[in-house]
């Protein structure tokens, strides 16, 4: 077995791993990166980028279908060529992956070890039995994988995860999507708009990442108007069956209780499991280390330094189970790698204000502290208030026939500081950025209202919600209906 002694070993070559490697290299040349799977990052290969490609195709169809509402009538029937749709998705996906691989190719060959690592102790890693690495410091950046009930494996190749969707050569006729979270909502709605018959099922009533009951209720109602959604379904049976339509591929038969309380049967080409993700830490041999684990078996780590209870081991990205988003993984990777490189001079890294988005239509976004977090921290004392705006009569939203949505903004009693927001609505991804910048700058609601607002723009809806909140915080006047400085329809 080959023996290596290094200053820093990074386990994983995704977004967090690459960031950790580069940050550690700024302090020492003795760094290796260990990767057993393909390089390319979850985002580029099977996550944010290919999903947006599919969503973009779906949006183009939706705009054509909506055109008659403007008095514009496209001639002829809309034809969706599934093979052409998926060909573009895969071509562009491969292009994005290529950009990542170009960066990986720049890493010296001697710094890359191929294989899966397991801990022997706090400083020793065994890589597939061919190499033993003794490292002074180690960064865990092993990412995550889809999680679903083991019994679903009985469906064989009729069960797919989001990774599999982007390898389809053609669009199927029907899909049952389980999990109305970020992945399920995005892919389910996109497939529906591309002509695939879908039903979206969930358990417990959760829709997207939302925690505000009113915003979540609005989202549930809005999506049900477009496609079948039951966020708390009762499935009686799900089994693989032989096709009866003359095709060679088996189907899946799902029996469930529908909205009318009746038993309904849905026969589909595929079941798409979008029921969450699990950190890839269960096969690392963590039991051979002194690392403290949480109830899910994930290493606990300091939020600002990413240092675990074993002071020479750090964790970053989806493996940390903190905030599984690309920009967070990149930040965490840099922090963990920097601290592994400069150890023992550990430093707190910049943790930006929380921001997340679901690229459904309407879009969903969350900023800062969630409603649930605020209820837990401040709810008992009534120390925060909520400002609201509906986008149904908001001027620019109605102009574009995108007038669906509800925005809630939260502010602290006494200080007037902006605490967070949850929303569903048009251009929520952009509204969320404005609010996240305000949150990170610790602005008050009054200071945010002093910022410029153009007319007519969707952002005027944000101003309406902020005015409502300022009044509820007793820091500003009551809302004035049809205020003159807003212009019509704000």
Automatic annotation (TrEMBL):
This is Dihydrolipoyl dehydrogenase. Belongs to the class-I pyridine nucleotide-disulfide oxidoreductase family. NAD(+) binds at residues 179-186, 276. It holds the Pfam family Pyr_redox_2. It comes from Vibrio aquimaris. Its EC number is 1.8.1.4. The active site is at 455 (proton acceptor). Residues 7-333 form the FAD/NAD(P)-binding domain. Disulfide bonds join 43-48. Residues 356-465 form the Pyridine nucleotide-disulphide oxidoreductase dimerisation domain. It comes from the Bacteria. PANTHER family: MERCURIC REDUCTASE, PYRIDINE NUCLEOTIDE-DISULFIDE OXIDOREDUCTASE RCLA-RELATED. Its cofactor is FAD. Keywords: FAD, Flavoprotein, NAD, Nucleotide-binding, Oxidoreductase. Transmembrane segments: none annotated. Signal peptide: none annotated. NCBIfam families: PRK06292.1-1.
């Amino acid at each position: 077995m080959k023996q290596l002694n290094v200053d820093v070993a990074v386990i994983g070559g995704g977004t967090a791993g690459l960031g950790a490697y580069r940050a550690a290299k700024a302090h020492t040349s003795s760094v290796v990166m260990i990767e057993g799977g393909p390089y390319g990052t979850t985002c580029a290969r099977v996550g944010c980028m290919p999903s947006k490609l599919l969503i973009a195709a779906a949006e183009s169809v939706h705009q054509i279908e909506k055109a008659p509402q403007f008095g514009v009538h496209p001639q002829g029937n809309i034809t969706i060529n599934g093979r052409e749709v998926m060909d573009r998705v895969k071509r562009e996906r491969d292009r994005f992956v290529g950009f990542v691989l170009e960066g990986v190719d720049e890493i010296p060959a001697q710094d890359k070890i191929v294989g899966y690592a397991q801990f022997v102790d706090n400083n020793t890693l065994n890589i597939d039995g061919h190499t033993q690495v003794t490292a002074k410091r180690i960064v865990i950046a092993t990412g995550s994988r889809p999680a679903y009930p083991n019994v679903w494996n009985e469906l064989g190749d009729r069960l797919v995860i989001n990774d599999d969707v982007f390898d389809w050569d053609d669009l199927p006729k029907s899909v049952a999507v389980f999990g109305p979270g970020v992945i399920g909502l995005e892919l389910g709605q996109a497939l529906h708009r591309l002509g695939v018959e879908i039903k979206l099922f969930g358990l417990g009533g959760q829709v997207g990442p939302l925690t505000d009951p009113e915003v979540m209720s609005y989202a549930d109602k809005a999506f049900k108007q477009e496609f079948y959604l039951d966020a708390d379904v009762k499935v009686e049976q799900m089994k693989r069956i032989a096709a009866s339509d003359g095709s060679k591929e088996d189907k899946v038969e799902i029996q469930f209780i529908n909205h009318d309380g009746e038993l309904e049967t849905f026969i589909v080409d595929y079941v798409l499991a979008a029921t969450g993700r699990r950190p890839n830490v269960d096969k690392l041999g963590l039991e051979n280390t002194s690392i403290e684990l949480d109830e899910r078996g994930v290493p606990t780590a300091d939020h600002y330094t990413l240092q675990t209870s074993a002071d020479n081991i750090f964790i970053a990205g989806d493996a940390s189970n903190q905030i599984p988003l690309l920009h967070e993984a990149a930040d965490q990777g840099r922090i963990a790698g920097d601290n592994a490189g400069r150890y023992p001079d550990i430093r707190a890294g910049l943790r930006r204000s929380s921001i997340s988005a679901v690229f459904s239509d309407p879009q969903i976004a969350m900023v800062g502290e969630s409603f649930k977090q605020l209820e837990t921290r401040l709810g008992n004392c009534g120390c925060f208030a909520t400002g609201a705006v509906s986008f149904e009569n908001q001027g620019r939203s109605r102009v574009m026939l995108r007038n669906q949505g509800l925005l809630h903004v939260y502010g602290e009693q006494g200080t007037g500081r902006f605490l967070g927001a949850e929303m569903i609505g048009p251009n929520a991804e952009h509204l969320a950025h404005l609010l996240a910048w305000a949150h990170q700058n610790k602005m008050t609601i009054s200071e945010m209202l002093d910022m410029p607002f153009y007319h007519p723009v969707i952002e005027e809806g944000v101003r309406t919600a902020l005015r409502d909140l300022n009044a509820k915080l007793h820091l500003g006047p009551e809302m004035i209906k049809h205020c003159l400085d807003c212009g019509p329809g704000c």
